[in-house]
Write a structure and sequence with these properties.
Shape: globular
Largest sheet: 6 strands, mixed
Number of domains: 2
Strand order of the largest sheet: 1-2-3-4-6-9
Number of helices: 11
Helix content: 40-55%
CATH topology of the largest domain: 2-enoyl-CoA Hydratase, Chain A, domain 1
CATH superfamily of the largest domain: 2-enoyl-CoA Hydratase, Chain A, domain 1
Structural class: alpha/beta
Radius of gyration: 17 Å
CATH architecture of the largest domain: Alpha-Beta Complex
Length: 244
């Protein structure tokens, strides 16, 4: 489910659910944490995160019901926070599309390399769910406020070339180019890069939710609209949202 390859001071951590487009479920998050534990124990400096097959990560696995489990979503957010605190530099190699939580996985990384055929989309509003402040702020920081609104509020999909122009992608290239990019980082001064990481990640995206913001977020995840969206997806029809 999660592959791990050690290469000198670099570790490749790979989603290995190509049949499910590398969608996240509770087992994947447990395995990801273990892979990152191993990378720390191995003393690597750079972690490359990528997907097996044609997709990077299709987000939370709706078929498993994970999207309805608040405990699962909280474990995902804890993983993102942990990754941002690590001293290791994380490179997300988007070998294909990233959707929803897959985009969050890309944004928790320090640098991103996108395959020419990669794209990002956060269709939460089509699924009756919403995203947290951290996700919004990270996206806003990487693509700008106007484009963040398009991605979140209009559910627009952005391709690799547009994302390179906006600054979300640090490089557009294939898997080998992504690996060469990551290998190059291992030859740079570790203390310098660790300091840069700490400075970039210690920003307004890490602000705590206010009580009002938390209530509003939880109201969406507890809504009838979310349950309707899940049922509609199973029944292969458009959901009918009623705002409750």
């Amino acid at each position: 489910m999660i592959g791990y390859t050690l290469e000198d001071r670099l570790a490749i951590v790979e989603f290995q659910r190509p049949d499910a487009r590398n969608a996240l479920n509770p087992e994947i998050i447990v395995a990801l944490n273990k892979a990152f534990d191993r990378a720390v124990a191995d003393g690597v400096f750079v972690i490359v995160l990528r997907g097996q097959g044609s997709a990077f990560c299709a987000g939370a696995d709706l078929r498993s019901g994970a999207v309805l489990d608040k405990g699962f979503m909280e474990s995902v957010m804890r993983f993102y926070a942990r990754a941002e605190r690590l001293e290791q530099i994380i490179v997300a190699d988007l070998n294909g599309p990233a959707v929803g939580a897959g985009v969050q996985m890309a944004m928790m990384a320090d640098l991103r390399v996108l395959d020419p055929g990669a794209s990002i989309a956060i269709p939460a509003a089509k699924l009756g769910v919403t995203i947290d402040k951290w996700t919004l702020r990270r996206l806003e920081n990487l693509v700008g406020g106007g484009h963040a609104r398009s991605i979140l509020m209009a559910c627009k999909k952005y391709d690799a070339q547009t994302l390179e122009r906006l600054g979300f992608a640090n490089l557009v290239g294939d898997r080998e180019e992504a690996l060469e990019f990551a290998r190059g980082l291992t030859r740079l001064a570790p203390l310098s890069l660790r300091n840069y990481k700490a400075l970039f990640k210690n920003d307004y995206a890490r602000e705590r939710l206010s009580a009002v913001e938390a209530d509003r977020l939880h109201a969406v995840w507890d809504s009838d609209d979310l349950k309707e969206a899940v049922v509609a997806r199973i029944e292969k029809r458009d959901p009918v949202f009623r705002g409750r």
